[in-house]
């Protein structure tokens, strides 16, 4: 398999990612969309980053472990890149080539928001790692769940477990949010903004209405 060899128009599937600051409800909304599409007979693959493969899940445990708060920013970037390269080659591209809708919790926009805006790494270095890891693969649509940082951190505080990113100061999370909003302003047609402070069911309906047209040319399970 040659990574990134197909353009989005040539791939039979669709690649949709969920992004947002900590506590924005990405995982909840991704699961809801996955169920709604499956009920409509659409072949759906749900996955996450870092993770999605055995190697990716091992990287996830490492980069989110609160014991490693002193991890260097470049080491963090490269670990995310390694996880993504494995994920793209072994999960995402095969699913897209089979005609599935792939829903992923975080992808390359997260790397720009967290490592470039949040950590302050040079954006050309961040984008170079992304390009190497993805082979040029980009999501067809990015669903950005936007929420004020203070509210997101309040939600995170109600969780039973805390990861390394949750422990970062408020200023870091604000820079991440600013990064996401800058990316959305740059590509408003591909990166769609949703108010994550609205009731969960309202956000679910808005996301489904936006995504359904993307799925119209994707074969249903009964048609395959």
Q: What would your notes on this structure say?
A:
- The chain is of the alpha/beta class and 224 residues long.
- The protein has a single domain (14-213), classed as 3-Layer(aba) Sandwich (Rossmann fold).
- The protein has helices spanning 26-39, 54-64, 73-97, 108-118, 123-134, 149-157, 170-186, 200-211; strands at 14-20, 44-48, 101-105, 141-146, 191-195.
- Strands 2-3-1-4-5 form a 5-stranded parallel sheet, sandwiched between helices.
- The longest helix has 25 residues, at 73-97.
Q: What Rg do the Cα atoms give?
A: 17 Å
Low-confidence parts, pLDDT < 50 over ≥5 residues? 1-6
Helix coverage percent of residues?
A: 40-55%
Under CATH, the topology can be stated as Rossmann fold
Cα separation of the termini: 22 Å
Principal-axes shape call: globular
Give the key terms.
50% helix, globular, Rossmann fold, 224 residues, disordered N terminus, five-stranded parallel β-sheet, alpha/beta
Helices, strands, pairings?
Blueprint: E1 14-20, H1 26-39, E2 44-48, H2 54-64, H3 73-97, E3 101-105, H4 108-118, H5 123-134, E4 141-146, H6 149-157, H7 170-186, E5 191-195, H8 200-211
Helix pairs in contact: 1-8, 2-3, 3-5, 4-5, 4-7
Summarize the structure.
The chain is an alpha/beta fold and 224 residues long.
């Amino acid at each position: 398999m040659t990574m990134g060899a197909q353009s989005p128009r040539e791939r039979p599937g669709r690649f949709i990612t969920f992004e947002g600051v900590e506590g924005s409800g990405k995982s909840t909304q991704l699961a809801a969309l996955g169920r709604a599409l499956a009920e409509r007979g659409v072949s759906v693959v749900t996955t996450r980053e870092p993770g999605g493969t055995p190697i990716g899940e091992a990287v996830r445990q490492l980069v989110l472990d609160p014991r490693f708060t002193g991890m260097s920013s470049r080491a963090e970037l490269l670990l995310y890149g390694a996880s993504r390269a494995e994920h793209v080659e072994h999960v995402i591209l095969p699913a897209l080539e089979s005609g599935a809708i792939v829903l992923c919790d975080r992808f390359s926009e997260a790397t720009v928001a967290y490592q470039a805006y949040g950590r302050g790494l040079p954006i050309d270095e961040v984008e170079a790692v992304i390009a190497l890891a993805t082979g040029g693969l980009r999501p067809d649509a990015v669903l950005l769940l936007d929420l004020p940082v203070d509210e997101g951190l309040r939600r995170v505080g109600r969780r039973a477990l805390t990861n390394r990113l949750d422990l970062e100061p408020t200023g870091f999370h604000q820079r991440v949010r600013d990064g996401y909003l800058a990316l959305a302003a740059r590509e408003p047609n591909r990166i769609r903004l949703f108010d994550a402070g609205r009731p969960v069911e309202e956000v679910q309906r808005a996301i489904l209405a936006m995504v359904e047209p993307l799925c119209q040319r994707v074969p249903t399970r009964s048609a395959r």
